[in-house]
Specification:
The complex is a heterodimer of chains A (about 400) and B (about 325). Chain A has about 400 residues and is of the alpha/beta class. Chain A has 14 helices and 16 strands. In chain A, the strands form three sheets. A seven-stranded mixed beta sheet of chain A has the order 3-2-4-5-7-6-13, sandwiched between helices. By secondary structure, chain B is of the alpha/beta class. In chain B, strands 2-1-3-4-6-5-7-8 form an eight-stranded mixed beta sheet, with helices on both faces. Chain B is globular. The N and C termini of chain B lie far apart (about 40 Å). In chain B, about 50% of the residues are buried. The chains are: A alpha/beta (about 400), B alpha/beta (about 325). At the A-B interface, β3, α3, α5 and β9 of A face β1, β2, α3 and α5 of B.
Chain lengths: ~400, ~325
């Protein structure tokens, strides 16, 4: 047996390896911090003859997605990577890619949106793209980034799915940190991931028109078919993860990953790298005598409704750690978790909105809140436990009061 | 190439949903004949998105991807990169022509970034802007291509600005081929498409597309209005390659003195969108502004042409 290739690499370079092992043939991308290293590494792979691929250095993210749509429509496996404002800028075409049923994989390095200018991590960018018809997978280790990109192509191109997949991981916490990663064996990956196939392509032998004007009756049919594909994806994602374990090696969970849930009385629910912080919280709470577990949501769309019901049904308390927020409502993941378990048991669900724009997420704050919840001292609603009023806020308050006074606002 | 030599095969099929006298469908017909079957099409949001007929029917006999408004240059970049891969891997025996078909709104305004980016990369495709000088699909609003003083639904007293010149912007990109065309000169248009097909890199062809409902003229007058545009100098026909501009067809004849530049009033009077220049009273100022602008351009071109002939004579004269 050949010795396994291990590298100590950044999450971004690992993502580039994912595209390389998946044999993406066209890459179109525009650089944006913190994604930039992904496309730099792919360019280097291509220049040094290590990756047989065409790289289109487009002039914007809107064009990156448009070029990818053009390439996949021609029948070629393609890859892109983006982040934050880039994802927001290509939003229109996210719909286009899923609604004309093109299989493709794009990495999104989760970064906060401005203003104020913030390059650090939260999940607002990809959560805002929730309803675009893209499958969304969230990673929490470097190894998982590599393996998930390969699995994502398999899911995306599955005849029961044919939808684009977004693979998400956290800015800087994962994108720029170095971790040891096993670079998977290319032959094994090839066995796991067959050559590109697609529901349709631009075919000279069978010319047809795709994406033209469509009347209401047919439109609704098309939309329903996307929903069915999402439903099918639940099973396909789980199967792909399991088959990957057998053929290539490595497992990170299906739609969810659990930690110490076997005998849990309470649980944390989180996505992305913050779930690793939550593992520390779980261990800490267990030391203090609370049987706590962790459910890491690996797949946000389709949402793991049945899995969460099964796991959370008989617990005393569930606490969601949210790295994104739906303004005027509550934490974005919190809404989803509550909706999933509604009517299945009556445990309270709590929400901590924290870690926005890269703010540190302390394990002890999560633990304190969980203990308060278990004592029945916490209201079941979204809380911002790490927000603090400082001098700056007082300044804002004072200037607002002055403005109101000037304008005669009572 | 004469009209009767055009290929008989129709790739733009019957049953389109175009308006009567639609210049877009006429231009598609000529372009498809010149480019032939080995062509893959990206239609950018425009009248053509509609005139091709609604799902599941299609009047387009070529494989077609309809795409969002701002994507022309970018989607074609992806298509041509993929086509290269398919040739390299033996899945295509020959690289197809990638053709982008966009209106002036999708080219002059929302789409210029993607077009400029692709041209700077010299991506290998033909980009066509069929220019009806308005957002005609949306009910005739102004675009960057709308000429000075023209009525649209949001320039009800006539547009106050001169149109920009995207063909010249494309020339400034240094791409291998830029051409303008007119429906009234179909053999000239056919020749330009056939030539563009043989060139690699970004090629840009802009066709003036007089729109009967948007410009307010009878639907039987499309070709007549297109011809008047060239005869009055409101639309110029040329091609630019290898750093040189060559004027063609009607425009060439005017510059070379074989035909007279017709008064622009003939063109303006043929369309309802300029009616406010004549009714209720004649707007001498704006008519003169338009006429003077054209006259200046043609005086310069005619002078340059004469100078060139003169210089050629000297060069070609035998040494004494």
């Amino acid at each position: 047996m050949e010795e396994k290739m291990r590298l100590v690499e950044t999450g971004n370079h690992v993502a580039a390896w994912g595209a390389r092992l998946a044999r993406a043939e066209v890459v179109s991308a525009y650089p944006i911090t913190p994604q930039t290293q992904v496309i730099e590494e792919i360019s280097r792979f291509i220049d040094e003859g290590e990756m047989d691929c065409s790289y289109i250095p487009v002039e914007s993210e809107h064009s990156a997605m448009a070029a990818m749509i053009g390439a996949v429509a021609m029948g070629v496996r393609s890859f892109s990577a983006t982040s934050s404002h880039g994802l927001a800028y290509m939003h229109e075409l996210l719909h286009w890619a899923s609604n004309i049923r093109l299989p493709m994989v794009m990495v999104n390095v989760n970064r906060a949106l401005g203003p104020g200018w913030n390059i650090w991590c939260d999940h607002q960018d990809s959560l805002a793209a929730r309803d675009t018809g893209w499958i969304q997978l969230y990673c929490s280790t470097h190894q998982e980034i590599l393996d998930t990109i390969i699995q994502a192509y398999r899911v995306s191109e599955d005849p029961k799915v044919i939808l684009p997949v977004m693979v998400c991981y956290d800015a800087f916490i994962m994108s720029h940190t170095y971790m040891q990663v096993e670079i998977r064996d290319q032959e094994a990956v090839d066995r796991f991931l067959p050559p590109f196939r697609s529901l349709w392509k631009l075919d000279l032998d069978y010319p047809f028109t795709h994406g033209s004007v469509i009347y209401p009756d047919d439109y609704e049919e098309v939309r329903f078919s996307i929903h069915q594909a999402m439903e099918n994806a639940r099973r396909v994602i789980v199967e792909a993860a399991e088959e990957f374990r057998e053929v290539v090696g490595g497992y990170h969970g299906g739609l969810v990953e659990t930690y110490r849930m076997e005998d849990a009385e309470c649980a944390l629910v989180a996505m992305g790298a913050v779930a690793s912080e939550c593992r520390v919280t779980v261990d800490f709470l267990r030391e203090r005598g609370h049987r706590c577990g962790l459910v890491r949501v690996r797949c946000y769309r389709p949402f793991p409704v049945d899995e969460l019901r099964g796991l959370l049904e008989r617990l005393q308390a569930v606490m969601v750690v949210d790295r994104g927020f739906s303004f005027g409502m509550e934490g974005a993941l919190y809404s989803e978790v509550k909706a999933a378990v509604y009517g299945h048991g009556d445990r309270p669900v709590y929400d901590l909105v924290t870690g926005l724009g890269g703010r540190d997420v302390p394990y002890d704050v999560i633990a304190e809140n969980m203990e308060a919840a278990l004592r029945g001292e916490l209201p079941a609603e979204s809380r911002w436990p790490t927000v603090r009023l400082n001098e700056h806020h007082e300044l804002v308050k004072r200037s607002l009061e002055e403005y109101w006074k000037r304008e005669g606002v009572r | 190439m004469r009209l009767r030599d055009f290929p008989e095969e129709e790739l733009f099929l019957q049953g389109s949903a175009a308006c009567q006298g639609c210049p877009g469908s006429a231009a598609l017909r000529v372009a498809f004949k010149a480019l032939g079957k080995n062509t893959i099409l990206a239609v950018i949001a425009s009248c053509t998105s509609v005139l091709q007929s609604p799902y599941p029917a299609s009047a387009l006999g070529l494989p077609t991807l309809n795409m969002a408004f701002a994507t022309g240059g970018a989607v074609a970049s992806g298509m041509t990169a993929a086509a290269d891969r398919l040739v390299k891997n033996g899945r295509f025996s020959e690289k197809p022509t990638i053709l982008v078909w966009a209106g002036d709104g999708g080219t002059y305004d929302i789409g210029i970034q993607a077009l400029s980016g692709a041209a700077e990369r010299n991506a290998d495709f033909i980009y066509v802007c069929y220019n009806n000088e308005a957002y005609s699909n949306t009910g005739t609003q102004r675009s960057g291509a709308t000429p000075y003083a023209a009525w649209t639904t949001n320039t009800t007293r006539g547009k106050g600005e001169w149109r920009k010149d995207v063909a010249q912007i494309m020339v400034a990109h240094g791409i291998p081929y830029v051409a303008t065309a007119s429906l009234a000169y179909p053999t000239d248009m056919f020749r330009k498409f056939a030539k563009a097909r043989e060139i690699r890199g970004t090629r840009y062809i802009e066709i003036q597309a007089p729109c009967p409902p948007g410009w307010k003229f009878p639907s039987s007058h499309t070709i007549k209005v297109a011809r008047l545009a060239v005869q009055t100098g409101m639309w110029m026909l040329y091609e630019h390659e290898g750093g040189r501009t060559t004027y063609t067809a009607g425009t060439q004849r005017i510059i070379q003195g074989q035909a007279k530049l017709a008064p622009v009033e003939e063109y303006l009077r043929a369309q309802g969108r300029f009616r406010h220049l004549f009714e209720p009273e004649r707007d001498e100022k704006r008519i003169a502004e338009i006429q003077n602008r054209i006259a200046n351009i043609f005086e310069t071109l005619q002078f340059t042409h004469k100078m060139k002939e003169h210089i050629m004579d000297i060069e070609m004269a035998p040494p004494r």
